[in-house]
């Protein structure tokens, strides 16, 4: 951010946000805006009962920063009457993609018509990915103050990271380098900084020491990842899966036949290799393989001068070779039939290892599958409804789909739960998700679970009780999140942190990664690098010179100059602090 940009105001009480919608996500979104960012909110929805309207009305009765504005039908004119010209932002949160887009276009048109030069920001909830990705052609992008987001995508990313035991926001790409969030110090990292510390009593961002560190920010080494080891690991895993799949393809009789054929050909190999009688004796292992191939195909002339052992070998191998074609044909036909039957009946088509089991293929469950498959993680999905749209979408992404009840241990065992990374329960009903997770733990006590729970308090209690025996610094094996709570927090950040590079959530607290340009005659002009670090406020990560060279984790004696850009991790108040220090013509120390 350039120093001339506005401050990161912690209490924009005079800023008003118009929120259109009446669902559970809307109610939590409103609470985040008021409680965390101190916005004033005008909730707009149609008159009468429906959705979460009564809950929003009750919230407005006890919260002076929330006002309810209703009309028989919500239109652009309704939004104008609610205070469009004075609004800091308008958030369209209905579960109607076309309706939200139509209303957004009308609001933009009305703003121009009213001569409003400072157009309000627009935050639009939209599920359809194709429409969402191309909407900037109609409304513009974030540079124009338009933020089009999908709650399903936001939530899917959180659940997918939890399934892989990674901390949000996952991989961070800044200035051509990769950063990661971790729970422990790792000497393999090129550099690392403490982001948060604390214990059960509370969390402290940007702490002074590492005695109770909860989150570290790692800088990965600037080199290409090793190729041999990942390829070797993938090759071993592929061989294991192929062998397991082959075992599943062959029935008992085919297995016996295959073993018999192998034994006969092995015996024939050693007889031909050690017997020199006959008109055409073998000259080595290569000749033996050649003779075996001809014998198996029946393409060798009889040798009446050979001794009885060699004649017997010729006869047995030729007769055995005649079984190869029907054997191969039977195996192929069985594999094709079994696969088609498995697909039609919702059974497993192949064995997998180190995979993630996803329960429920609704909107969010399907997005979790897509997110994991984009990371090339094997997925086995379980869905009750054969006609669910997510079944086809999951299979199109390369995931296997089992049709059945995920609380059934038979279905879970068929999904290879003993060899999976984790189980992600994304059904719409809390009890179904909890039952699936507990059933999974009965099958595999060491299972990692991730659950979608609607009520955030209930989700927190489940998470605390399942992880009771886990030390605070260790990665908890069980996670449970409220989808509306996760999505509403992310939507709220779009109204406040449009210039922030990265947002890092830590147990209800938020740290930020941001860049600041050092202005001429500012407090940071010709100052030591340690001046850009303040305990409890902000910590310097890197300095980029005006010429483009970057110094990561500079030492305390490193001198900062005007035109440099500082990359810091900071609290919200810390953003204001470092901004003041980088402003041109700032005050003396």
Automatic annotation (TrEMBL):
Residues 353-476 form the RCK N-terminal domain. Gene3D superfamilies: NAD(P)-binding Rossmann-like Domain. The keyword Signal does not apply. Keywords: Ion channel, Ion transport, Membrane, Transmembrane, Transmembrane helix, Transport. InterPro entries: NAD(P)-bd_dom_sf, RCK_C_sf, RCK_N, Trk_Ktr_HKT_K-transport. The keyword Transmembrane applies. The chain crosses the membrane at residues 254-273, 314-337. GO terms for biological process: monoatomic ion transmembrane transport. This is Potassium channel family protein. It comes from Glycomyces rhizosphaerae.
């Amino acid at each position: 951010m350039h120093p001339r940009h506005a401050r990161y105001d912690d209490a924009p009480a005079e800023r008003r946000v118009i929120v259109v919608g009446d669902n559970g996500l809307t109610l939590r979104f409103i609470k985040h805006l008021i409680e965390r960012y101190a916005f004033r909110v005008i909730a707009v929805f149609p008159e009468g009962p429906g959705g979460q309207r009564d809950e929003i009305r009750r919230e407005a009765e006890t919260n002076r920063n929330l006002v309810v504005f209703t009309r028989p039908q919500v239109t652009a004119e309704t939004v104008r009457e609610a205070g469009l010209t004075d609004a800091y932002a308008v958030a369209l949160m209905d579960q109607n993609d076309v309706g939200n887009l139509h209303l957004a276009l009308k609001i933009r048109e009305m703003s121009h018509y009213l001569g409003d030069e400072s157009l309000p920001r627009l935050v639009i909830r939209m599920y359809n990915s194709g429409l969402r990705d191309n909407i900037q052609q109609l409304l513009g992008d974030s540079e124009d103050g338009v933020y089009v987001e999908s709650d399903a995508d936001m939530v899917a990313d959180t659940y997918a990271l939890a399934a892989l035991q990674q901390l949000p926001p996952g991989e961070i790409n800044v200035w051509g380098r990769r950063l990661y969030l971790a729970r422990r110090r790792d000497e393999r990292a090129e550099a690392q900084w403490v982001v948060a510390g604390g214990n059960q009593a509370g969390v402290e961002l940007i702490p002074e020491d590492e005695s109770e560190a909860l989150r570290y920010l790692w800088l990965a080494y600037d080199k290409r990842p090793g190729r041999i080891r990942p390829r070797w690991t993938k090759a071993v895993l592929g061989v294991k899966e192929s062998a397991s799949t082959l075992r599943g393809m062959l029935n008992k009789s085919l297995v016996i036949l295959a073993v018999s054929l192998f034994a006969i050909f092995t015996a024939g190999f050693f007889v031909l290799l050690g017997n020199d009688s006959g008109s055409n004796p073998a000259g080595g292992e290569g000749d033996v393989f050649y003779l075996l191939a001809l014998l198996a195909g029946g393409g060798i002339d009889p040798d009446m001068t050979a001794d009885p052992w060699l004649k017997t070998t010729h006869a047995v191998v030729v007769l055995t070779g005649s079984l190869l074609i029907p054997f191969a044909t039977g195996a192929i036909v069985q594999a094709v039939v079994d696969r088609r039957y498995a697909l039609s009946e919702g059974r497993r088509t192949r064995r997998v290892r180190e995979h993630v089991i996803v329960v429920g293929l609704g909107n969010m469950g399907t997005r979790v599958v897509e997110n994991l498959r984009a990371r090339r993680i094997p997925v086995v999905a379980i869905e009750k409804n054969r006609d669910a749209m997510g079944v086809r979408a999951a299979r199109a992404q390369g995931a296997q789909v089992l049709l059945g009840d995920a609380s059934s241990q038979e279905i879970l065992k068929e999904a290879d739960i003993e060899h999976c990374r984790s189980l992600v329960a994304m059904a719409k009903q809390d009890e179904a998700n909890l039952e699936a997770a507990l059933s999974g733990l009965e099958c595999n006590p060491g299972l990692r679970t991730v659950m979608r729970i609607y009520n955030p308090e209930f989700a927190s209690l489940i998470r605390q009780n399942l992880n009771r025996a886990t030390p605070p610094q260790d990665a908890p094996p069980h996670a449970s999140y409220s989808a509306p709570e996760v999505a509403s927090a992310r939507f709220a950040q779009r109204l406040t942190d449009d210039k922030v590079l990265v947002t890092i959530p830590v147990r209800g607290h938020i740290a930020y990664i941001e860049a600041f340009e050092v202005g001429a005659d500012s407090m940071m002009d010709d100052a030591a690098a340690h001046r850009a670090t303040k305990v409890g406020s902000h910590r310097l990560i890197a300095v980029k010179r005006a010429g483009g060279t970057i110094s990561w984790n500079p030492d305390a004696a490193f001198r900062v100059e005007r035109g440099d850009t500082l990359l810091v991790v900071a609290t919200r108040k810390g953003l204001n602090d470092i901004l003041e220090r980088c402003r041109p013509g700032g005050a003396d120390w």
